[in-house]
Structure formats: structure tokens, C-alpha cells
Amino acid sequence: MTGGLMKTTVSRLALAAIASVVATGAMAADLGGNCCADLEERVSELEATTARKGNRKMSLTVSGHVNKHMVWHDSNATDARRPDTFSIQDNDSAGQSRFRFVGSAKIDADRTVGYVLEIGISENAGVAFSSDGTLNRVRQNHVYIQSATLGKLSLGQQSQATDGIMDITLANIRQMNQGGTVDSSRLLGGNTAAVFPATQGNRVQAIRYDTPVFAGFTLSASWGHFTAQTEAVDQEHDTWDVALRYAGEFNGIRLAAGVGYREQENIGGAIAATTDKVWLGSGSIMHVPTGLFVSGGVGSRDRDRNNAGDDFVHWHGQLGIERNWFGIGNTTFFGEYGASDFDVEDGPAGNINNGTFWGIGFVQAISAAASDVYVGYRNYEADNLNGVGRGDDIGVFQAGMIVRF
């Protein structure tokens, strides 16, 4: 009797447990179904409003930076494009704001096909540095095939082999005025700063080849053609160049260097039917434990025309220290000096200026935000040989920030 009662009780408890499990499962199934339906609806909404790649084979990476600075100068030169002494502008001379699309896809274990499309933001056009910015500056627009064993072949709008080879530095100072570039100061001070010409390579429609890295060395060569058309004149330029770069580190000493040669044929305009022959190079060395560094570059141009100022030599040097003193990123202090010397032996000296510049700078990296804050000062001194005010000194102060994404 007792045994039968116990069996009945156990059976009832088992049935109740089974019923509870079934009911709970049914509720979970309903909840999961409603949850998934809501999630799928949200995903569909996001997909409808999100930019997507055109295919799944080619990767897509979007990157770039915004580089803004305040600029003050003390030039009273009548040929200055900016009559005021203070302006807020895009830092065109050392890292114009830009965005880029980069993609690649593997053919096999050795070969890769890819593309680079980079657009610059142009806001500094005109005398007043107009705030009506445009996207009309295509910096890079090329395709490439790369082999780990044979190298890289690129075609389209891109940097020449000698682009950037005069401003090689291991320090975090490239977001400021570089040693071979004074575009920002030229816009402010007119021809006074223009006596410090850059011999850098440019970005042109070109075909370019880069070897793989051998023992730290890379050899590059390019051939290109570009035009400059205005209402008054059409100019065409055929150009070719070669460059050799090196990077390495030994026993706490980091090294980087490069040398290049470029020939450019100029047709049309004020420099009709001339050929520029340009030698240029730069190097940088850093003692990693202390952060002490030295960088420098030199460039010379020989133009096949008997006229003053066509031939010149430009050089610059930088000395500084870079350490992570504050824990948020490297802090860089540096000083710099540079000069341009024109050859006036074969032409009228009244049209040419020589000059020197010196400067100091500070850069604070914010590693967690991929950003840098920088402050710098440069003083330009030009010899006045033509009596039109180009001998006035210019002091240029800049303070800005670059944010990368």
C-alpha cells in the first residue's frame, strides 16, 4: 500500500517537472524568436544606410588625417599673398588634410593586386584663404601589382621615386614645416620665402617600380608626364627619376637615408624648352635609448639655360631629442637651420636672392588618440639683390594639431 502510494507520488512529480520544462522551453522559443526577428530588422536597417564594398574579393580600408594650424607672421612685404598677420588654415606645407581608400586582393601566395585613391582638402586657395573648401586635389589615384619576390609595379597618379627623399627623418616632426618645404610661409610672405625652393619629387601620372627590400635597401624608378594648363599658358613636363632608400637599426642606433636623381623636361610657359637635372638626398640617425637625433638633406638643380637663378643648392639640418616623458606619447624638441644658394655668375644678379632660415619646434604625440599637437617658429632671412623688398625678414609662428583616422 505504501509502495503504491510512493510510486504514484513520484509519477506525479515527474509529470509536473516534465510539464514545467516543456512550458519553459516554449517560452524561451517564443522569446528567442521575437528577439532574433528584432535583431534581423535592425541589421537590415543598418545595411541599408551603410557604405559597402562593391565585392567581397577586394579589401577596403578608409584612412586619412585632418591637419589644422594657426599661423602668425611679421612680414610687411608688399608681395605677400596674405596681408594680415594671423590666419587659421589647413597645413598644406606639411601634411594637407586628406582621406584615402586603399584596397588589395591576393592572386596567390606571392602576388597581390591593389589600388590607392587619396583626395586632399583644399581650403587655402586665394588671397584670403577662403573657407569654401574643395575636394579638387587628387593626390593619389593608382593601381598596382606587387610580388614579394619581384617587387611592385604601379600605374597612375602617384609619387615620383624622389618624392619625400629630401626630408627623411626618424623623429616625429613631419607634420610641421619640413626642411625642404616652405609653402605655408611662401603664401604668407610672398617671394621672401620663395627663395628657399624645394627640390622634392612631385606627384604625377606615372609608371613606377619598387624593388623588394634587400638588406634594408629599396630601389625605385619612375617615369611620368604631367601638364599645367591655365588661361595664359599650357605647360607640359616629361620626367623620370631613380632613388635608393635605406632603413636599419644596429645596437640601439637607428638609421634612415635616401639619395635620388631626377630629370624633368619643361615645355611651355616662362621656362620653355629647358631640362632640369636634380640631385637630392637626406639622412637621419637616432640613438634609441636617449632619443637624440640628427637629420639633414641637400638638393641641387642644374637647368640647361643661361639665366640667373636657374641653378641652385638648398640644404637643411635638424637636431633634437624625442622621449616619452609624460606617458601619453613621445615628446619631441628640435632646432633647425637651412640655406639656399643661387648661382648668379652667368646672369644678371639683380633678379636673384639667396637666403637662410632657422627654427625651433615642439611636438607632443597623443598615442591613445593617434594625434599630435605641435608648436614651431621659423625665421627667414633673404639677401635683397633686386630692390623690391624681398630682403625683408619673415618670422613665422605656427601652432596646430593633426588627428589621424
Helix content class: 10-25%
Structural class: mainly beta
CATH topology of the largest domain: Porin
Using the CA coordinates, give the radius of gyration: 30 Å
Distance between the termini: 81 Å
Indicate the mean pLDDT: 77
| Largest pleated sheet | 16 strands, antiparallel, barrel
Number of helical segments?
A: 3
Tell me the number of structural domains: 2
List low-pLDDT spans: 5-10, 21-32, 126-130, 180-195, 346-351, 385-390
CATH class of the largest domain: Mainly Beta
Keywords summarizing the entry:
2 domains, mainly beta, 16-stranded antiparallel β-barrel, 3 helices, Porin
What report would you give on this structure?
The chain has 405 residues and is mainly β. It has two domains: 9-50; 65-95 and 160-201 and 209-404, Beta Barrel (Porin), CATH 2.40.160.10. The chain has three helices and 17 strands. Strands 1-3-4-5-6-7-8-9-10-11-12-13-14-15-16-17 form a 16-stranded antiparallel beta barrel. The longest helix has 48 residues, at 2-49. The chain is globular.
